[in-house]
Amino acid sequence: MEYTSSAVFLVLCFECLMPTLIAARTTDNSTCEFAPNFIFPSNEEKNRCCSVVYENFKYEWSWGRSYLTTFLNTLQTWNCSEFERECSIQTFAYNEFARLTYKKFCNQTLFESQCLPIVTSAANQINTNWTSSISKLKPSSLTSSQLAEPCVQAAMYEVGGFGNYHEVIEPLVPFCDFLWCGFDNSVVEAGRVSVWTCMPNSCRGGIIAMMAISLIFAVMTTAANATVIVALLHSRILHNQAIYRISLALGDLLVGMIVFPTFASSLYNKFHIKHSVGALTNVTGYVAVNGNLLEEQSTVRGAGGLFEARLPRSYIDFVGFWTILSVCVSVYTLVAAGADRCYALRRPVQYNAKSTMPKALIPVLVIWLLSILMAVLPLFVSDLRYGLVASILVSSVGREALILYIVAFAVPLIAMWTMGVASYCFARRYLVHWKSICPTGTTKRQSRTEANLAKTLAVMVGVFTLSFLPAVVVMVTSFFLPHIYLSDPDNLVQSSAVAFNSAEAVTAFILMCNSLWNCFIYSARDKEFRRATINMYTSCAGRLGMQRLCKMLIKWSPEEEDRLTTSNDDAIHLEATTNYRTDTTDHDNTNTAM
């Protein structure tokens, strides 16, 4: 992804689902695992496995579940026709490390001539050949600056070879090109490898800035919504709209206390946590024994540093539950508040007769129960799950996610906008009507209050709509950009994918920040809320001995505004009276003289 973050889920779910739809095709690779001593019973089986490995890598590379070195080594060892094609087009040559890896497998001579000086220096050798430099290269003894060299990273594959090499692949880093690098397993086991290791300083600065902004907004959002809750609970009149505002503030408080902090923690876990080597697994294939083919098992090391190791399922489910809960509460509360305003303005007599605080609590209770139900669905429905979107936001993903978003968010959002527009229109007509029949008195003040509540709600909906517009642009743009999907590398354009991923991250921040604005809207439009807020902070400042702050707050109070307004009105009236008397005296003197 807000009255918070709801729209971002509608927008970003398309990005979650699209790669799934593209990668819906599956192949049987149960007998196509690579091991150095495996052979094929027939050319047909070899060709089939070559095709399987080639197609599967397209869908697995972006998750780090398969390495480029393993991919090229497998195609080369099996003498696949796809190897020559891949050497020609170099589909995955997204950065210098990947380009050097292609050179290493496709043109070893060119690779050695380009990297020999750098590798020789890293191995502390002078004027030696490639073989001697590799034999003297000690990956665990290399400095951080030497490990950062793409030539050294690619050359380390020759130190340990297949099964003893680890790649770091992270294409989804906001404001940063695809990250891809490789290390010998001894470096990984020493705890020296993470995504941060492969990240240039410019990208590191962007991640640090995003983490800092997340924590700042976490504090501000928590403080603002805690203020709303306490001020409304201590206000003089706890009307229906106040109950809905408290419910909305509780939902937004969850954003400040959980969602924004997990933006920072997700970025840290994804990019800072050290990688570990992959686990050993058994694979089955054929070996030649005395001229006969026998089925045999071999042990190979799989990919390491997977997403699940850095962001465990328990963490994702915990954050996802509270995120969805806060979103649902925000959306449903605004829908209920809009319906309440429409009823109050269309049927004021019936509304005043039925409007009591206990009755307003009933829909709020239903809202929270329904929100809890929506939040637990991904925990129990097999086709739904929680996943990380745009590197920062935990959302529902899976085959049924689109249905959940339509039912849980899209329909309520349409209802919310309809209610907001309707209540604003009703408020304008309602105020004009009561001004014409009740020009003075308590009824006029009550009608103005009802209309002001409706307009305040319309402002809240309008502010959200402005926050939602960037998300709409991102969503619409995604349908016209076929070059942004990682699971379609044949058509992928790195610059387009990076720009789109960065736009998603910015959109998530803009929409989540909507949880902060309601406090300022209430302060600007609701004098009773402003009075309660200032009284609360004045009391706190007084208890802490902050007298200067107390005086400053008192100057901002509505009572002081009313006093100044009255004083100004009296001064204007006195000046007008004086001018009138002066004009009258001058007129009388003129008549006397005549």
Protein described:
The protein has 594 residues and is mostly helical. It has 2 domains: 33-199, no CATH class; 212-274 and 306-539, Rhodopsin 7-helix transmembrane proteins (Rhopdopsin 7-helix transmembrane proteins), CATH 1.20.1070. The chain is built from 25 helices and 6 strands. It has helices spanning 6-22, 43-60, 68-77, 81-89, 96-106, 108-122, 130-136, 144-147, 150-155, 157-160, 185-189, 195-198, 201-233, 240-272, 307-310, 313-346, 348-354, 357-380, 401-437, 442-478, 494-512, 514-525, 527-543, 547-555, 558-593; strands at residues 165-170, 179-184, 280-289, 292-301, 385-389, 393-397. Strands 1-2 form a two-stranded antiparallel ribbon. The protein has a two-stranded antiparallel ribbon with strand order 3-4. Strands 5-6 form a two-stranded antiparallel ribbon. Helix 13 crosses helix 23 (527-543), helix 14 (240-272) packs antiparallel against helix 16 (313-346) and helix 16 (313-346) crosses helix 20 (442-478). The radius of gyration is 33 Å and the shape is elongated. The model is unreliable at 1-29 and 560-594 (pLDDT under 50).
Lay out the secondary structure.
Layout: H1 6-22, H2 43-60, H3 68-77, H4 81-89, H5 96-106, H6 108-122, H7 130-136, H8 144-147, H9 150-155, H10 157-160, E1 165-170, E2 179-184, H11 185-189, H12 195-198, H13 201-233, H14 240-272, E3 280-289, E4 292-301, H15 307-310, H16 313-346, H17 348-354, H18 357-380, E5 385-389, E6 393-397, H19 401-437, H20 442-478, H21 494-512, H22 514-525, H23 527-543, H24 547-555, H25 558-593
Antiparallel strand pairs: 1-2, 3-4, 5-6
